[in-house]
Amino acid sequence: MLLLVIPAAVDELTTLDDPAPENWPTWSPDGRALAFFASRAGVDGIWRMAADGTGERYLVEGGEPNWSPRGDEITFDCGDAENAVICTVRPDGSGAMTLFGDAAFPAVRP
To answer: What global pTM score does this model have?
Structure first.
């Protein structure tokens, strides 16, 4: 998947990254950052970048990120094919922890 920013008045598209495989992109509540799943140099997991495509950073192993309403946490699926588990991490990659098991496809709502 190629991540693009499309302005309301579509004159120009901004490519945020290379065409490597990405999935589940999600904007932070303030619109300043994007969290997504990607595989980079053999490292699969949750990545974060600024809205302009700069500052790409690996956060943690997992998939399907979803920002909390305040933007202070990202929930994600951290299980495997046999064990569905929901975890959370701060946007800087710190504080990763398991929230609960037997669940998948996290979505945080206000």
So the answer is: 0.74
